[in-house]
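Archive entry: two folds, one per protein. Generate the first.
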Amino acid sequence: MASREEALAYPQQDIELAICKSCGFIQNIHFDPSYHEYSERYEETQGYSAHFRSFLNEFVDELIERHQLHNRTVVEIGCGKGEFLSLLCRQGNNRGIGIDASYVPGRIAEHADLDLTFIQGFFEEHTDVIAVAEVIICRHTLEHIARPAEFMHKLREAIPEGSRPLIIFDLPDTTRVLEERAFWDVYYEHCAYFTPTSLAALFRQEGLAPQTLYRRYGEQMLVVEAYPDETGDKQTFSLERPVAELVTLSDEFSQSVERTVDGWSQRVQRANQAGQRVVLWGSGSKAVSFISALGNGCRIDAVVDINPHRQGSYMAGSGYEISAPASLAALQPDLVIVMNPVYEQEIAAELKQLGVKTELVSL
């Protein structure tokens, strides 16, 4: 948010998760899209992290090698600011079409030499682009779709008869969230929560045949690679667990997640009472959810983020200002809580460069 006042006034709504006992799909049954703004103000990119850029490069290289993705037309649904699509086009000499309401023209000007077209809008308004797709990619998007079956049905209908594009979806795996009681990964923007079981079921239901199903990025992300189903292929995968197990896991999450919240709340309160300075590293949705769950009894002294487009803005709900990591050299925090453990080593190295000696813990 541009001001603290705007951030504090941002509307807040309840989340109630419900699980389908037939397929294991989990959703926020109170989700109302009118409360969720998704425009070019939405700042989702993680591309300012060297660790994340390395991950993207490795992922792109693996996909290119495994599927021989050279000189193909790639359509990415929910392309964000275009980093992934640009890499795939550069490293595979591919043509790219990206669709995203949050796309900001000019953010990837250094890739102006590539055959790239970006559409600032929603996929449902531009399904015609699928007709030319040889590869369809959708990363970190399906979890934002209130009616994912309708979304997938529109995608399947948009694929011309006889066409066989490679389809790759990449999204958070809710299994880890349930097992780790990761309450910080439950937030309003995510209205749809998938496990390998429910994701594979959705693809099969909509006439798409998963070819492989695997986890990446510290076991946090779930990737499915599929083709249009022409044979009635019902291949299953080891990651798929019985729905009854997922229902039990969901019940256990509901019964014990408050203990996890209380544990973190007490940790921060002890630091506050000891006069220690507490910092959150990362200002995205995890941080918003973490702060909201802890409540007003916990004081956070600073929130930092390496994304320069976030710095100087304010976090929705709490109104905390987002600062650059360099500010920690003066603050000298006693406790830094990392919002995503995959970045802990990178953050530790940056803190060392800044001359900050602190306790570093990750969610």
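Generate the second and append.
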Amino acid sequence: MGRFGNQVDQFLGVLAFAKSLDRTLVLPNFIEFKHPETNMVPFEVLFQVGSIAKYTRVVTMQEFTKKIMPKVWPPEKRKAFCWTPRRAIYDKEAEPGCHAKEGNPFGPYWDHLGVTFVGDEYFGDIPGGFDLNQLGSRKKWDEKFSSEEFPVLAFSSAPAAFPSKGKVWNIQKYLRWSSRITEQAKKYIANHLQRPFVAVHLRNDADWVRVCEHIDVEKNRPLFASEQCLGEGHHLGKLTKEMCIPNKQQIVDQIVEKVGSIGAKSVFVASDKDHMIDEINEALKPYEIEAHRQELDDMYTSLAIMGRADLFIGNCVSTFSHIVKRERDHTGQTPRPSAFFGVHAAKRNIEL
């Protein structure tokens, strides 16, 4: 599940899964982790339902729980779906199963909807599982879990690959920010930024430092969203720690380089911890421009602002950066310029 970037990443695969099964998707609540609380944010608060409906059939969670669930999914028929039975983490005496409500945010999520499960169903024996591209997979789903017997498929975790694969990235174009978030982004740009402007996403909180420790340059395995800049299977190069957690000098140098390359008049910075505003502004003095951040951080508005930038610099590994990159690649007639810290354009060596 993870934070917002991970949730959106998997949501793309869930959309593709629902469309392939020809099932109506109940638009999920997004989960905000604000320790010690877990907040549920309705899909329609963040994104336009009408835009998603252009891709596949959908219904809001509110409409489902209030009008549809009581009729088609009575309490005695509510079963959880998962790949295969597993042991419970907290209750060692419990029988193996999906344990769909075990822990946070899973328990609070289903409790918020008023759902208690009476049993489990497993789909691990279906060829490809939730990957319906495999031969016979769609037919097997229909045979084993017909819509007549199972009108609702409720999964204990997203039926989609994580990290997402390139084949679903273009679905991002159907994820349009709500009018409220769009207007907030436009207002901030009008009041604080001059075009052309560079938008920057920095990941540098303690939890991210720990993520980057998992990088193995020799094995070169994909990590979170790293395939967005290195291609699937990293066929375009090797993932380095510089790409995941660049030092302050590398960050400043690359921002200055991109500012000069487009003649930027301002810089916007979003971060989970340190925005580096003082360091960036010191480096930008020769250009007589300034870097800005939101006084009260709102990650959704930050994402919308970065999506509208003239040039974006993100973190190669971050799924949060990947939201911006996908939006810039697939929303509009042509992709808009994006770059990543630590990822440098390949230089062509021509021998005469």
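Annotation attached to the second fold: Residues 346-352 have pLDDT under 50 and may be disordered. The first strand starts at residue 25 and ends at 27.
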